[in-house]
Amino acid sequence: MRPWFRGGPARLRPPMAVALLLLACLAACSPRGRVAAVSWGAADEAGLAQARESVRSGIVGPGDVISVRVFQEPDLSGDYRVEADGSLVFPFLESVPVKDRTPGEIAQEIQTRLSQGWIQAPVVSVFVKEFNSRKVFIFGEVKQPGTLPFTDGMTIIQAITIAGGFTPDALRNRTSVARTIEGSESRVTVPVDRIAEGEIPNFPLRPGDIVFVPESPI
User: Fold this and answer.
1) What is the domain-level CATH number for residue 97?
2) Distances, alpha carbon 37 to alpha carbons 23, 68, 71, 75, in Å
3) Does 146 lie in the same domain as 203?
4) Which parts of the chain have pLDDT scores under 70?
């Protein structure tokens, strides 16, 4: 399958720098030693760019609660839960499709439809009050595998750190991320040791990603 991302150096917040240092120490102290680096070519670089472009902050999904504010219209302003089909039931407009859209896109949709015979020059703002749909899944050779709540800007280093770090049997540089895009699943191998050593940029995750850390055959 074609890889789907590339990008420039990631900006690291202080907690992220600590996480990178922790992973570097784990790599150095493992009784099995460091796994040989996986080759990183132009195709992988091209893929990383696409992944970074695909990460859009604030994407809404079923079960999320969004707060809608319509200027000088208190009867329309309030909190709304996204239905299972990805729609929002809104006064006057009935069903508004919101799945996989940003708050800004949703605000524009509501504003445009309200202006079509309901309110003159409406001003609408939207923000997400509760993210209940956004999850990341991590399995394999990590100490606490399972489901993690996704946060904006989340990276593979963060996910592994939250999952307790690698087990001694982890084949770190063969860590993979599976992502579904428009109904088709893509998978890419992420050499985590090389990220920890600063050789390549950190890897951005998005809601629904599945991270798998295989077991070393040695």
Assistant:
1) 3.30.1950.10
2) 15, 49, 56, 59
3) yes
4) 1-58, 182
Q: Is residue 121 part of a domain?
A: yes
pLDDT in tens, 153-171: 899 999 999 999 999 999 9
* Residues 139, 201 within the same domain: yes
- 217: in domain: no
Q: Sheet harboring 78-81: ordered strands across?
A: 78-81, 65-70, 124-130
Q: What percent of the chain has pLDDT over 70?
A: 73
**Letter for the amino acid at 136?**
V
Q: What angle do CA 60, 105, 95 make, to 5 degrees?
A: 70
Residue 43 falls within a domain, yes or no?
yes
Say yes or no: 81 and 175 in one domain: no
Q: What are 70's strand-pairing partners? A: 124
Sheet holding 210-213, edge to edge: 146-149, 135-140, 210-213, 175-181, 184-190
Cα–Cα distances (Å) from 108 to 57, 65, 98, 113, in that order, read 17, 18, 11, 9
Question: What are 180's strand-pairing partners?
Answer: 185
Number of domains in the chain: 2
- The reported pTM is 0.52
The whole domain housing 190 covers 14-57+134-210
